[in-house]
Amino acid sequence: MGIIVTQACSLRDNYADLRAVGYEVLGVSVDDEKSHQKFIGKYDLPFSLVSDTDKQVVEAYDVWKEKSMYGRKFMGTVRTTFLIDENGIITNIISKVDTQKHAEQILT
Question: Distance (Å, rounded) from C-alpha 68 to C-alpha 43?
Fold first, then answer.
């Protein structure tokens, strides 16, 4: 299972627990809306995914960075979770996301 799928499924499988303590889950990526709807359907996700094809959100949150894989450099989104309270204030930033236990990271 891929990293993105593993993280999404961790959030899906623990969605009730996240909601019970007041969290809402919202995923953001630069993929288009069509791919998001396909991904939501395939993995039965109970939360929304926002399409940021113009990269305004990822750039505003400073997570659009140069990455490297197999010696090749490219621009991409650095996997990061922002916990934002009801007043729009960022209360925590999880920059070392454990995709398998991501819901646990948020809840602790």
Answer: 28
For residue 32, which phi and psi values (nearest 5 degrees)? Answer: -80, 165
pTM as predicted: 0.87
Find out whether 43 and 37 touch, Cβ atoms under 8 Å: no
Reduced to 3 states (helix: H, G, I; strand: E, B; else coil), residue 64 is: strand
* Alpha carbon distance 42, 96 (integer Å): 26
Which residue has 């991904």 as its token pair?
39
Residue 19 has pLDDT above 80, yes or no: yes
Is residue 58 within 8 A of residue 50, CB to CB? The reply is no
Say which DSSP state 22 is in: T
Structural domains present in the chain: 3-107 (3.40.30.10)
Q: What share of the chain is helix, strand, coil (3-state, %, to 5)?
A: 40, 25, 35
